[in-house]
């Protein structure tokens, strides 16, 4: 593929290969899932708050029949000045968008997961209409239609075409709010209304 006139080879396994390899589905409640074709529907996104070894937020965007995923240690910010590190991780199945629960100790990603935000998204600002094309180029302007996130955020890859390090930041649009602290103001799940701590206490790992 081409990126600014340069030939780029992005090394990645087959969709969901890494996801399945890292998990024992007889021991974790996470969905096994599969690659799905949902071309006739709006693209979905989810942000899951994940209390594992370190608390972080997992941003997942539907593209190519899977959820492309990034771990965002500090979570999203409505302040355009906040450039948040987003580390690309393995693709997840679309079923994962509704996953909320406790991943038992001894399993990859052990800890508590809540659906912190979810909704639909589209690419904005006249950039590539195909999210996979934009992902390969390393820059996505994403308009979120969520319950907590609204407006445009930018995801841009850093350190070269094969890097998994990206930055996530809010575009300075009408939805930007430098004074807002969305992760502190809205800690709860949009699915259950519970916080990470409440889910952790209410569920017994298998």
Task: Describe what is shown at a glance.
With about 210 residues, this protein is mainly β. Helix content is about 10%, strand content about 35%. The N and C termini lie far apart (about 45 Å).
The strand order across the widest sheet is: 3-4-5-6-11-10-9-8
Oligomer: single chain
> What count of helical segments does DSSP give?
4
Largest sheet: 8 strands, antiparallel, barrel
Please state the CA-atom Rg, rounded to the nearest Å: 17 Å
By helix and strand content, what is the structural category? Answer: mainly beta
How many strand segments? 11
Residues in helices, as a percent range: 10-25%
User: How would you spell out the order of helices and strands?
Assistant: EEHEEEEEEHEEEHH
For the residues shown, what is the average pLDDT?
90
Principal-axis shape equals globular
Counting structural domains, the number is 1
Approximately how much beta-strand content do the residues carry? 35-45%
Give unreliable regions as ranges: 1-12
Through-space gap between termini: 45 Å
């Amino acid at each position: 593929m081409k990126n600014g006139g340069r030939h780029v080879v992005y090394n990645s396994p087959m969709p969901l290969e890494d996801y399945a390899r890292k998990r024992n589905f007889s021991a974790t409640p996470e969905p096994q899932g599969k690659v799905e074709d949902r071309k006739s529907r709006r693209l979905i996104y989810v942000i899951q708050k994940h209390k594992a070894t370190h608390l972080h937020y997992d941003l997942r965007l539907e593209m190519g029949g899977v959820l492309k995923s990034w771990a965002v240690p500090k979570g999203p910010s409505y302040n355009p000045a906040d450039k948040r590190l987003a580390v690309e991780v393995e693709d997840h199945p679309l079923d994962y968008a509704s996953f909320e629960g406790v991943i038992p100790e001894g399993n990859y990603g052990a800890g508590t997961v809540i659906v912190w935000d979810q909704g639909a998204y589209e690419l904005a600002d006249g950039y590539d209409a195909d999210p996979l094309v934009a992902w390969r180029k390393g820059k996505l302007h994403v308009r979120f239609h969520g319950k907590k996130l609204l407006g445009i955020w930018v995801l841009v890859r850093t350190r070269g075409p094969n890097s998994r390090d990206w930055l996530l930041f809010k575009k300075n649009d009408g939805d930007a709010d430098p004074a807002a602290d969305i992760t502190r103001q809205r800690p709860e799940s949009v699915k259950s209304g519970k916080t990470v701590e409440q889910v952790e206490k209410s569920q017994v790992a298998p």
